[in-house]
Amino acid sequence: MSLPLDVVVMMGQTMAKVVPITIALAVVFAVLSHFWACNPGGPWWRKRELVTDLLYWFFVPVFSRVFRIGLLVVLTGLIFNIHDADGLIAFYDNGHGPLSELPLWIQALLFVVASDFMLYWLHRMFHRGGFWKYHAIHHSSEHLEWISAARFHPVNLFIGTIMVDVVLLMAGISPNVMLWVGPFTTFHSAFVHANLNWTLGPFKYVLASPVFHRWHHTSLEEGGNTNFAGTFPIWDILFGTFRMPENKLPASYGVDDQPVPAEIGGQLAYPFRQ
Q: What global pTM score does this model have?
């Protein structure tokens, strides 16, 4: 099978997984936000820039999978001198080295914790200097909903997510952990962007909640430079960036600097025009 055809098949497989997941999430968060909305307003399917977010929602999984596999192939050839397909499959099938000897559930836990720690610092990096223009795309949504979770510029996605996955897989963790980690991260990412007034009560220090992350999407004055953790707020607590005001909910979202285009084409070009 040729490489272009391989990519097409991979895209088809990815879409076959994304579509039913999208339908399930759409129904779940439509019901939950009807009863426990953080910010009153119309349902998620009436949000501004819905088409833009839907395009990201279906584009990001394909982009991530193609470039994750591509980067693994290139780096494995450079570092481990493995170039043929059978060798790559054998090398990555069940992981390699000491980490692959651990039970799969421990590998999955290690993957989630280690990746979240690295993503915390990368997230802080993307809020500074020349990196912000790429991350501003994610923060440009003024009507924050679960479908906004995938709004990432490819540069942000590549450095801030794909490279982290590749580093941990090359360290020896089995790719099979993605069968566990993938559904969790997809749901939790949509969950923290959902229009819900949930703080998770005493567990707000354990797991990121919708209110926790919605504070991160507010203006800098309100808290937009806090709550960088994607999954575990402990990183924000340890490094002084935790914010969860009592008896108060975030009300407005978006970027403080110049407006970001509403359509996906303009957003992809936006960082290169700054």
A: 0.91
